[in-house]
Amino acid sequence: MSVAKVVVDVPSSQINHTFDYKIPEKYEALLKVGMRVTIPFGPRKIMGFVIEIVPTSDVKRLKEIEAIMDITPVLTKELLQLGKWMADQTVSLYIQAYQAMLPRVLKAKYKKEIEKLTDIELTASLKQMFAGRDFITFEEFEENKGNYAELLHALKEGYIQINYIVESKETSKKALFIDMAKEQHLLEEAFIDLPKNAKKQQEVLQYFISNPTEIEQKKLIEKCKTTPHTIQLLIEKGLLKKTLKKVYRDPFANTNFQSTTALQLSEQQRKAIEPIWKSIDNNYNETFLLHGVTGSGKTEVYLQSIEKVIKLGKEAIVLVPEIALTPQMVKRFKGRFGDDVAVLHSGLSPGERFDEWTKIQKKEVKVVVGARSAIFAPFEKLGIIIIDEEHETSYKQEEQPRYHAREIAKYRGEYHQCPVVLGSATPLLESFARAKKGVYTLLEMTSRMNEQQMPPVKIIDMREELHAGNRTMFSRELVQAIKNRIERNEQVVLFLNRRGHSTFVMCRECGDVVKCPSCDIALTYHKSSYQLKCHYCDYQIPMIQECKECQSKQIQYFGTGTQKVEESLLEVIPEAKIVRMDVDTTRRKGAHEKLLTIFQEKRANILLGTQMIAKGLDFEDVTLVGVLAVDSMLNLPDFRASEKTFQLLTQVSGRAGRHKLPGEVIMQTYSTEHYAVQLASQYNYEQYFLHEMQMRKSFHYPPYYYLTLINVSHQDELKVQEVTKMISRLLLKHLSGDATILGPTPSPIVRINNRYRYQCMIKYKDEPNQREIIRKILQYYHDDIQKNNLMIQVDFEPYQLM
Ligand code: ADP
Ligand code: ZN
Ligand code: ZN
């Protein structure tokens, strides 16, 4: 007898352990750790992951596994172990962790189908089962009492394969493939025998003589500029043959990837890559921080590191932020590694995502380029993990399990004994601090490939504009600069920060912003209560009537959307042709690319947008970058507001003058003397780092202290207040005396969907028992959570403080 230990799909914190199930004899040979099964659980049948197989169980009356859902494991041993660790780290359920590692489609309904790949080697009973067909459903196999051991053997030998058929229209796509029906030398003979005037047929044959492999008919027609009719003639002559085959939906099918080869590395690239190569060659785990200015050639370092990994027969994961996963970025990896690359991003349909994932699972690719969740790619011979733009907050998942891809990368790097490379022009403060301490190995690239200076930055003081009588949101200098570019047929990128959910209050005369005296973050204006509140601690004051610095009454709250900017800009410069890119204009699939193409083809002269235009884009004729309201980033109620501003300003500035034409950057702000603005305009990361570290030290923020954010929500505001208060009290009692508890306080967004939200925050240096205490608190509220709609969210090292 064998017993399977199963993690069951029940979302309750009280069942975060495994259950034992007897493995029916018919599945003995087949069932492996990492497969999913259906099992009886109480009155229901549910799904579960098999995480261990053992000979016996202590449980008296064991229930049996009902059915298997997978024929091959969907999770490797490594991922099973990683999932457990991740669940513990984030205080989530094992089941949540495992689900998060798999493509969503695997959660949905789908069918399994067995496809026959050969007739010859199959056993008699399997042959009989297929009865001349190429496909049978897995259900049919089970109903006819098929032999699982034989099936497994055939699968291992590659005589059959299992396809997952997602129940949606667009899943299975088939295409016509053309291949040679005779050996190459016979084709050569046939070529000579073709009539002299059969030029078209000659061309197709010639193609196969020089490329003796199967090709999709559509591609063949394109390549040889031929017709289906010509191909058909050759098939009738018995020289070629056609087959209908399942193809992967390729989201980049219509993109032509020009193939590239390794560039001669520059001196600074060589210096940066050698330690990485060494770690790959010698098979040891090391985390590198590649700090390279924009345009310094980081991508080439990634590419040539991966090249080495592939040569050693190993695999690579490359993470890029979702919004940077543009065709431009994908092109660079596909161009170098061609079909060895799978791409995973949220723009794909669930079916497409699943296809890409399947390629990884079947080891048909060597490289995956993707957003956050690609970190779970089921590779088994990882040789390198690269995280580009490592400072990006999108690497943190904002729902359970709240993991950070960087931490997962480090875990997997350790497991596979391979390097982890974190790359950025503006590393996260925490990362740079670790590099300085020697926890990471720092690799620096300080000059741009084209040897050009970064474009000069001009800071415009919007207070002076006001004094000069200009009440628009565009300074005179910016308007003039835009007009010049339009005249010269050059292009402009205008950047506006994504509108914050909250509004801060600022004096337009002197630029003073009202801040919390103990937290150093901007106070948020609450219209309903006419109060200014701090969202970390509980500090609040009535809305001010005049500036406490200069007594001016020009007090304004901020928060302008891109649409409004577009309208105002057209009033000032009616001849402008604007492409606006924000969440509203890019919602539909493919809209992103379409808008960029319009700009690329110069059918517009201004690209106006939010964060999504800040990175990765590369246009030759962009010679001016304008940043409209630096202040709306600088004053978000977030202790990272200044750091995020510095990063964004550096990123957007990098969009100008990337090619031959020199670029220029104009930043508009009311806070001209702020260190983040000043140092970003000088591209001085090092100095910025030192200054910001000082700030963090004095206000007790990371990297000097760790944070844990606990967010409570419920329809009843009193209930939320009471629970949050209780949690704060429990934490205070059980954590060490070194920890500080901030709050309880209303969250920056106090109400979402009629649920009230309160929070408290733990600031600490070292609290080894923290997770255990929090788990106990969650246990304590278990019934309220299960039955009474109470929500308690715990975020370790949070990035979103809203
Ligand atoms: P980063 O990723 O650091 O911003 P990129 O990788 O985009 O920089 O490189 C900037 C430009 O320099 C690109 O156009 C790239 O093709 C080019 N480049 C990079 N490395 C080399 C090299 N070794 N030789 C020639 N050109 C290079
Ligand atoms: Zn003032
Ligand atoms: Zn405060």
UniProtKB/TrEMBL annotation:
| Keyword set, alphabetical order | ATP-binding, DNA replication, DNA-binding, Helicase, Hydrolase, Isomerase, Metal-binding, Nucleotide-binding, Primosome, Zinc
Top-level lineage group: Bacteria
Q: Which GO terms describe its molecular function?
A: hydrolase activity
Q: Which residues form the Helicase C-terminal domain?
A: 542-696
> What EC number(s) does this enzyme carry?
5.6.2.4
Q: Which residues form the Helicase ATP-binding domain?
A: 279-445
Q: Which reaction does it catalyse?
A: Couples ATP hydrolysis with the unwinding of duplex DNA by translocating in the 3'-5' direction; ATP + H2O = ADP + phosphate + H(+)
InterPro entries xref list: Helicase/UvrB_N, Helicase_ATP-bd, Helicase_C-like, P-loop_NTPase, PriA, PriA_3primeBD, PriA_3primeBD_sf, PriA_C
Describe how the cofactor binds.
Binds 2 zinc ions per subunit.
Name the cofactor(s) required for activity, per the record.
Zn(2+)
Per UniProt, where does Zn(2+) 1 bind? C507, C510, C547, C550
Binding-site residues for Zn(2+) 2, renumbered to this chain: C516, C519, C534, C537
Group of enzyme by EC: isomerase
Q: How does it assemble?
A: Component of the replication restart primosome.
Kindly give the PANTHER family that the UniProt entry links to this protein: PRIMOSOMAL PROTEIN N (PTHR30580)
Instruction: Spell out the HAMAP family in the cross-references.
Output: PriA
Q: Which family does it belong to?
A: Belongs to the helicase family. PriA subfamily.
Q: What is this protein called?
A: Replication restart protein PriA
